[in-house]
Specification:
Elements: H1 6-13, E1 35-37, H2 43-58, E2 64-66, H3 73-81, E3 87-91, H4 92-99, H5 108-118, E4 123-125, E5 135-139, H6 141-145, H7 151-155, E6 162-165, H8 169-181, E7 187-190, H9 196-203, E8 209-213, H10 218-221, E9 225-226, E10 239-244, H11 250-262, H12 265-277, H13 282-294
Parallel strand pairs: 1-2, 6-7, 6-8
Antiparallel strand pairs: 3-10, 4-10, 5-8, 5-9
């Protein structure tokens, strides 16, 4: 689902406070053990890992390590199972689907409730954040002004429109959008996963509907209009800390819960802009964010 930020991965890898294989060894965590924070290989996850690390240190944790990216969810889950990682930021809807491929939950409350019930015994999720980074369908302003404001509005117009998005769109959403909204696009183009190729194609009107993400700065920057998913096709994707059970103390868990409560989708979008566009050091971004939340 996420944007690859290859140029930033190497930079963040240098910020890891320990070296070696991120999957070697096993941290027991808690008040005296090492807390090892991992992330997937996407920019937003890397940034959230640094925010978690800063919050834990401010809460009194003395031995906190941010590992370089460890890969996709399959690798992250395995590392949490053997406690070579203690905690990672994740997304509620995708995490639920990983553990329950047949889920039909879509709302934040339903997704989170099912997620807590379906997690294997070795894991726990802390409080979910109001912040989401989920799929959106966006259009140019002129199409929105012609009366296309919701997915239902879009349904009757799809036959005349070209869609652009990730390669997995057809497998994951083509039938779903047809069944819910009667939408069959004139053509489906594979562009990229919410990245610059998709944005450029929509700007040039080579596609008329694009799949972007709710924390993408490109939406406002280009005057694109997000459509309302009025039948909730896309599941909620709230930020949640996924924890290897027994690796954090109660005080440490509460520190991460406070981070989650302070994040909004708008704030996360701003932080992503600082990281991906302004190329700020993610540790500095994390420090500023945590300072601003403490000042409230």
């Amino acid at each position: 689902m996420k944007r690859k930020l290859t140029a930033l991965l190497a930079a963040l890898a240098l910020l890891g406070t320990a070296c070696g294989n991120p999957l070697e060894g096993g941290a027991e965590g808690g008040p005296t053990g090492e807390i090892i924070i991992g992330s997937s290989d996407v920019g937003e996850s890397l940034l959230l890992a640094q925010i978690y690390a800063g919050a834990l240190r401010k809460a009194g944790a003395e031995n906190v390590t941010v590992r370089p990216p460890v890969g996709g969810r399959e690798v992250v889950v395995k590392a949490l199972q053997d406690k070579s990682l203690s905690v990672v930021p994740d997304y509620s809807g995708n995490l639920l689907r990983y553990f329950d491929k047949n889920t039909e939950a879509t709302t934040p409350a339903d997704v989170y409730a099912q997620l807590t019930r379906n997690l294997p015994e070795r894991f726990e999720v802390l409080d979910q954040s109001p912040a989401e980074d989920k799929d959106l369908l966006v259009v140019r302003k002129e199409l929105a002004d012609s009366g296309v404001r919701t997915f239902s509005d879009l349904g009757a117009r799809c036959k005349d429109l070209v869609f652009g998005g990730p390669g997995q769109w057809s497998d994951r959403w083509k039938d779903k959008i047809k069944n819910l909204y009667g939408c069959e696009f004139r053509q489906i183009k594979t562009t990229d996963t919410g990245g610059p190729v998709t944005v450029a194609a929509l700007r040039a009107n080579e596609i008329q509907v694009a799949d972007l993400f709710s924390t993408s700065s490109s939406i406002a920057a280009n005057g694109f209009v997000p459509l309302v998913d009025d039948k909730q096709m896309f599941p909620a994707q709230n930020i949640v800390p996924l924890v290897a059970k027994g690796t954090l103390s109660e005080a440490e868990e509460q520190a991460l819960n406070r981070v989650s409560s302070s994040l909004t989708t708008e704030k996360l979008t701003e932080l992503n802009v600082e990281f991906t566009e302004e190329k700020r050091n993610p540790m500095d971004i994390a420090e500023d964010f945590l300072r601003s939340t403490n000042d409230r």
